[in-house]
Design goal:
This protein folds into 2 domains: 3-160, Response regulator (Rossmann fold); 185-467, tm_1862 like domain (pyruvate-formate lyase- activating enzyme). It contains 17 helices and 14 strands. It has helices spanning 30-48, 53-59, 96-108, 118-122, 124-127, 142-152, 204-208, 217-230, 246-256, 275-283, 298-303, 311-323, 343-354, 371-378, 409-423, 426-435, 440-467, and strands at 3-9, 66-72, 86-90, 113-116, 133-136, 158-160, 187-189, 192-193, 213-214, 235-237, 263-267, 286-294, 327-334, 358-363. α16 packs antiparallel against α17. It binds iron/sulfur cluster. Iron/sulfur cluster (SF4) binds next to α7.
């Protein structure tokens, strides 16, 4: 009889899978509660609900005598009614408390629990008491060992490797463990891992290293062709900077062009100065890109080591990308260490000048494990107990985790609310939808949803301020 393994993905308290109020949703009643719930489900369905790629990769590992399922708890409660021989939970820091609770319930039923993912890798000591086994680091190779040991009855307490997996080895990703109808698309592809940059608020380079490790182009082309056969929806290249290696990206997208897919991904604004690559992106079906602008204040970029593109080149690069027919989601962070109360006006001018299709106005999130978290802790600027790691949860601009350097907290929250009110409103949503270079309906919808989500953000920040 085969061993049954559940790979568990936990929903976050808030965020793009359908933000909810962090403070008083339970108190809402009647039409308001119904409306918020309906919008959340719509967001899940139409925009953001994409499968957990890390678990898809693990579910693709085949070991004789093992059957793996993905349990995505955004859509269903954990199926305790089925018999499980092992549960693997991917732990994000902000969800660690929930992961530990679930682990306790599973272990109380005699189901061994493996904890892995970013939080387990960065903070193994916090996970050890809650797990039978820890998997530390990128699990692509380790997971086969775990499953073999499960079959042999020799599960160890800990699996870790000093060397990140060699991604140039063929590792076809299977989607057999997914229910495709739940997701916006199942066409998720990762071309490589690692980031050469060192932005201090980011843990990608901490977790995946600075060297770019790439998959082989022939494996990627084969994967895209295979995925396209049974899911004709849009592709999402999940790499943080799909143009980090322009020569590699050119060859890949040049070879993907004949397949006739549509895709979106994430890139640096340097793409605006890479005309050959920009052309390959357009020819291969690129419809939209997310670019991390983060800040247009040079002092903020320096303070947070965001050094890979220069402020004075940003606007020109963004215009060049949009002129090639690609819509842009431009992500800002307000509240960085060089920001002042004059920054919101500069952000508004920048959005107007560049015509960004979907702006994202984020709050700095000092995630435990990043340099900025350590620095803010040393400076006494964190608003939560630094040892209570789970309190640094993922939210959609709904909670302040620290005190900005140059702006008192009440004024900061007021200015953030004012900024988001000016950026996200119904007239702006229609105007941006109409002028987007591609996927106009999606741009309109995104902006309409953001009008709702930033409303939640303003409400929750105000509630938090009253409690501080
Ligand atoms: S924010 Fe982007 S560019 Fe900066 S370190 Fe993280 S992944 Fe790299």
């Amino acid at each position: 009889m085969s061993r049954k393994v559940a790979l568990v993905f936990l929903p976050s308290d808030s965020g793009v899978d359908g933000a909810r109020s962090l403070y008083d949703e339970g108190g809402d009643s009647g039409p308001k509660r119904w409306f918020n719930g309906a919008v959340r489900n719509l967001i899940k369905k139409t925009q953001f609900a994409i499968p957990p790629l890390a678990l898809m990769i693990l579910a693709s590992v085949e070991v004789p005598g093992v059957e793996q399922s993905i349990c995505d708890l955004r859509f269903e409660p954990f199926p305790f009614d089925r018999k499980w021989d092992l549960a693997g939970i991917s732990v994000q820091t902000g969800m660690a408390g929930k992961a530990f609770e679930l682990a306790a319930r599973l272990r109380a039923r005699g189901i061994p629990v493996v904890l892995g993912g970013p939080h387990a890798t960065l903070f193994p000591d916090s996970c050890r008491p809650h797990a039978d086994t820890l998997v530390l680091g990128e699990a692509d190779d380790l997971w086969k060992e775990v499953l073999r040991d499960l079959v042999a009855g020799t599960l160890k307490r800990e699996y870790r490797t000093g060397i990140p997996p060699d991604l140039s080895l063929p590792r076809p990703v299977s989607r057999a463990a997914l229910d495709p109808g739940r997701y916006f698309t199942t066409n998720l592809v990762q071309t490589g891992r690692g980031c050469p940059y060192r932005c201090d608020f980011c843990n990608v380079h901490v977790l995946n290293g600075h060297a770019l490790r790439k998959r082989r182009i022939e494996d990627l082309v084969a994967e895209v062709a295979r995925f396209r056969k049974d899911d004709r929806r849009i592709f999402f290249f999940v790499d943080d900077s799909i143009n980090a290696d322009p020569a590699f990206a050119f060859e890949l997208f040049d070879r993907l062009a004949p397949l006739g897919i549509s895709w979106f991904g994430q890139a640096t604004t340097a793409l605006g100065q890479q005309p050959r690559l920009l052309d390959a992106f357009s020819r291969s079906g690129c419809k939209a890109l997310l670019v991390g602008i983060e800040s247009i204040e040079p002092s903020s970029r320096d303070a947070h080591r965001k050094t890979q593109n220069r402020t004075e080149e940003l606007a020109g690069n963004i215009k060049a990308i949009r002129n090639s027919g690609i819509s842009l989601y431009g992500s800002f962070i307000y509240g960085l260490d060089g920001d002042t109360l004059a920054t919101p006006a500069a952000i508004l001018d920048f959005i107007a000048e560049t015509g960004l299709d979907v702006p994202g106005i984020n709050l700095l999130r000092p995630n435990p494990g990043t340099r900025v978290f350590d620095r803010l802790r040393e400076e006494g600027r964190l608003l939560f107990d630094p040892d209570d790691l789970a309190s640094f949860r993922y939210t959609f601009g709904q909670e302040m985790l620290y005190r900005p350097k140059n702006i008192p907290l009440p004024e900061f929250i007021e200015s953030y609310a004012e900024l988001t009110r000016k950026v996200f409103n119904i007239p702006n949503a229609f105007r941006r939808g109409a002028s987007a270079p591609s996927i106009k309906p999606a741009v309109l919808l995104f902006n309409l949803f953001y009008s709702h989500l930033y409303g939640l953000s303003r409400h929750d920040l105000q509630r938090q301020l009253e409690r501080l």
